[in-house]
Amino acid sequence: MTAAQADLPTDLQAQFLEMPVGLRLDSPAVADGAAIWRIARDSKVLDLNSSYSYLLWCRDFAATSVVARDSGGEAVGFITGYIRPERPDTLMVWQVAVDHDQRGRGLAGALLDGLTSKVAAGRALSTIETTIAPSNTASERLFLSYARRHGASVERRVLFDAGLFPDDGHEPEVLYRIGPLGS
User: Fold this and answer.
1) Helices (DSSP H) in 49-155: which residue ranges?
2) Which among 41, 135, 165, 183 could disulfide-bond with 170, CB atoms 3.0 to 4.6 Å apart, if both were Cys?
């Protein structure tokens, strides 16, 4: 549990998943950019951005992103996100990925709980958004589980139709809008 979560009333603390044993939640640093890029690449599911973009992400969006570190301090999972400029109470979750050998331990859910707790500690946060391709059932389960844990509703609609993408075979991206949080 993070310090911000520990300050919550006991009944609200139960909403949050604990980090798996041996792992800790942290903010990303520029030095994590290469590891985050590797985790995204190895996921075989995420759209891989340039390695340069992950370095920038760790520099410019560290306040709205998290990494999971193992006992040696290495990044083994991450979530990148940002606050939507036109909706300052909305966190857009960009990418979620966990190293293959850390999967099945509840890490993605704990990262998502930790990230939203971290962001909410510094600002009013009522909604999270993400986009999920229809074939990405793991992400759909993650975000629907998050909504259930937090008693939030989920609205879904196609944000970007497949025809908008220049590369062949890209699925549509479905927007999941989860909120209000804390209800």
Assistant:
1) 51-60, 107-120, 137-149
2) 165
The pair of three-digit structure tokens given for residue 153, joined into one six-digit string: 């509703």
Model confidence pLDDT, tens digit, residues 73-94: 999 999 999 999 999 999 999 9
For helices 51-60 and 33-43, what crossing angle results, to 10°?
130
Cα separation, 164 vs 172, in Å, equals 8
The residue type found at 179 is G
Q: How far apart are CA 17 and CA 95, in angstroms?
A: 19
Q: CA-CA distance, 46 to 65, in Å (whole number)? A: 16
**Cis upstream peptide for 85 (omega within 30°):** no
CA–chain centroid gap for 10, Å, is: 24
Contact 70, 89 (CB under 8 A): no
- Sequence-distant (6+) residues with CB within 8 A of 42 are 99, 100
Helix (H) or strand (E) holding 157: strand 153-160
pTM: 0.89
Residue that is written with structure tokens 């999972």 in the block: 77
